[in-house]
Amino acid sequence: MRSLSARLALSLTLSLITFFVIQSVLVNIESRRMVEQGVVSRLEHDMEEILAALDVRDGRLSMDMRRVPAIYRRPFSGHYFQLDPGDGKQIRSRSLWDERLEAGKAGVASGLEGPMGQRLIVLGRRFVVHGRSVLLSVAEDVSRQQGLARLFQHRLLMLSLAALMLLLSVQMWVVRRGLRPLTEMKEELGRLERGETDELRLRAPAEIAPLVEEVNRLLHVMRQRLARSRNAMGNLAHNLKTPLTRMVQILERDPQPSDRCLLMELVRRIERRIERELSRARMAGRAPGDVWPEPARDVRDLAAMLETVHQRHGIIEVNTPEELHIVADREDVMELLGNVLDNACKWAASRIVLRMRADDGLRILVEDDGPGLDERQQRDVLRRGMRMDEGKEGHGLGLSIVQEIVDVYHGSLELGRSETLGGLRVCIRLPGVLLPG
Asked: Biggest alpha carbon distance in the chain?
């Protein structure tokens, strides 16, 4: 596959060649037209002088050659005229000698061959002279003008070729200079691979700056995921160590029937910890290509499933526009909504309202008519939600997972009291996860 510089050079070369070919054709046509217009203008002037030399003698047209411009009296001078009165007796200039003009109608004719191989432009006009209709044809040799025009075109072609070479040289320099940021970016990626830097640090032009920013954002996302994975593994190992040690101590001695309950509790604690860390590991964050195609339908299905699980049909009211285009990991947002709605289903009396809309990003509002939380409880729940070893069923673990997902998307989570339903109000904002349109 050709490089960008080769493609640009080829396209510019073809464009310039096309331009110069069209220019040459147009210059050729225009130069011929200008030569013809100049000659025709002179011939029209000469026609007036030739007509002024006409007279009638004995009922026949005659011409006083002394009154005709001298150039028409010199043999093969390149300037000729021929008068046809219609009676078969033509009056010709002395410059024609014994030749005749190949002209038989009014108008301008170019490219005709004249005496001694000359190239003529012939201008024919009909006039009424002394009551008679006559055809006057005046011609001029344009061989010299055409030769000058060809010389001009040849010089123009040489100049155009030189300009083409110069423009191609300048273009190659401009392309190399313009693509230099890509070379610098390649070198920066090499430094990134060798661990010499943690992100791309270069001053890129406006066209490449979004690419650099997107690469740096992707690196940040990957570092976040790696950090979460490491933290999850460390937390899991740390939190499993104590219950496993306790279980080993129980099993090393002669287990008593009362130890069965303790062992089961330790096993459940291990299961909860594993499930907790698996939930953390599933958080993807926003990554290139993440698109949630049908959020409105998925949210309605989630609400219906939770109503079935809690055996509270018709309790959740979903208000989600069909035109929302969410750019985020579907599982992340579904887990976020699932935890918030699950908490609401446990505490609501008879009604839960879920609203999703575009408001400087994605805005999610969940309200219920349950007992709600006072300001101190709201602060404690969020504070405990940030810690993995604290939380209670209903608002602890679920909201801690929600807070972590919100943090991954650089969003915000606010708790309050619903003004319309009186229960808990959960407001979540996720910036930068909506497509325009």
From this structure: 160
At 33, which helix (H) or strand (E)?
helix 4-52
pLDDT by 10-residue block (mean), the chain, 437 residues: 73 84 85 86 89 78 84 89 81 86 78 85 86 86 85 86 86 81 82 80 78 82 74 68 75 72 76 67 56 85 88 90 82 86 90 89 91 80 47 52 82 90 92 70
Q: Nearest Cα to 299, choosing from 345, 328, 344, 330?
A: 330
Antiparallel, parallel or unpaired: β 60-63 and 54-57: antiparallel
Q: Are 198 and 216 in contact (CB under 8 A)?
A: no
CB atoms within 10 A of CB 283: 21
Identify the residue whose tokens are 């408001």: 359
Q: How far is CA 379 from CA 259, 326, 361, 405, in A?
A: 38, 30, 25, 18
Pairing assessment for the beta strands 424-430 and 412-417 based on DSSP bridges = antiparallel
